[in-house]
Design a protein that fits this description.
single chain; mainly alpha; Endonuclease III, domain 1; 13 helices; globular; binds iron/sulfur cluster
Length: 248
């Protein structure tokens, strides 16, 4: 058990962290300095190789990003980007979705999995955006979470990508897989816990970039199957993470 002398600096440090993240609804976990160092080196390597990483969903307005992100659940960004030009042309504003029915939205997204449920979610979300938020996609996590089809992952995408507001880290299937493989979290860590640990490890103003860069690495090199462990420069630097090295 730590004595009184040892506890004091830790309390001050914790208070500073709380003040910096006072708008977050939860405390971030403590992270060992060695792990923070690893995260810092990883971020530098990601910056070097994926410095131009951006969200790969096509959009020009926040509500279009929200719609595209709802559509992207269990679907590829490529598939979503094929469907959205016609959808966005038919429904230029949130009010246009609100004035329609889910059945009128369905034909535009029929090529995307779970399209019936997604049409209902888009219609419901855009109706609330129109009627409650004056036609503007809200800029707070709590308000976004009131929209149908929107959980933390989608809200984080919209807040960081459309508005530059960092309230969390997007943890999709790629980010969750890489967080384990890169040794940032233990296997079996839940998605909410992965998000909090990444938030604690990386600077807040980089949370959005971090998600994009990990997603790019997950799509291009560290794939679920056929990871490019022996060839990618990032992997040569951080390859000790690699459970799949022998199979690559
Ligand atoms: S070494 Fe392999 S497991 Fe590790 S990040 Fe690279 S591709 Fe992924």
């Amino acid at each position: 058990m730590a004595g009184r002398g040892a506890a004091k600096p830790s309390t001050k440090k914790s208070a500073r962290r709380s003040a910096a993240n006072a708008d977050l609804p939860f405390e971030l976990p403590q992270v060992a300095p060695s792990l923070k160092g690893r995260a810092t080196r990883l971020l530098a390597a990601l910056d070097e190789y994926y410095g131009d990483a951006v969200c790969e969903l096509d959009f020009t307005q926040p509500h279009e990003l929200l719609v595209a992100t709802i559509l992207s659940a269990q679907a590829t960004d490529v598939g979503v980007n094929k469907a959205t030009p016609a959808l966005f042309e038919a429904f230029p504003t949130p009010a246009d979705y609100a004035a329609s029915t889910p059945e009128e939205i369905e034909p535009y997204i029929r090529t995307i999995g779970l399209f019936r449920n997604k049409a209902k979610a888009i219609h419901a979300a855009m109706s609330v955006v129109t009627e409650t938020f004056g036609g503007e996609v809200p800029r707070t996590m709590d308000e976004l979470l009131t929209l149908r089809g929107v959980a933390r992952k989608t809200a984080n995408v919209v807040l960081s990508t459309a508005y530059g507001i960092h309230m969390g880290v997007v943890v999709d299937t790629h980010v969750a897989r890489l967080a384990v493989r890169l040794g940032l979290v233990d296997g079996g860590t839940t998605v909410p816990q992965i998000e909090r640990r990444l938030m604690a490890m990386f600077p807040r103003d980089r949370w959005g970039d971090l998600s994009h860069m990990l997603i790019w690495h997950g799509r291009r090199a560290c794939k679920a199957r056929g990871a490019a462990c022996s060839t990618h420069p990032i992997c040569q630097k951080f390859g000790s993470c690699c459970e799949l090295r022998d199979q690559a």
